[in-house]
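Reviewer 2 asked us to include a model.

Predict the structure of this chain.
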Amino acid sequence: MIKSADAIPASGAPGKTRFMLIVLIALAVVFSLAAEMAYSYFAERYEMNWVRPELAEHAAIVRATQGRLRQNRASNLNAR
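Predicted model (structure tokens):
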């Protein structure tokens, strides 16, 4: 005869249940951190879109200035 208490245990093995709980909590923490990092990355990119025209203009000015400086240095080196 099979007793119902023996056939269907009330809970799994205590060690296995505790291990699975720790694994699930660790996975939840990892996924939460990954989601937070992704959210901050996309939020920062969204904010940068508002400033992008001024940033592009500034980068163009810096490139032009650096190009002139490089040309001046090269001509000074060639003159020596």
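The chain has a mean pLDDT of 76. The longest helix spans residues 14-79. We have added this to the supplementary material.
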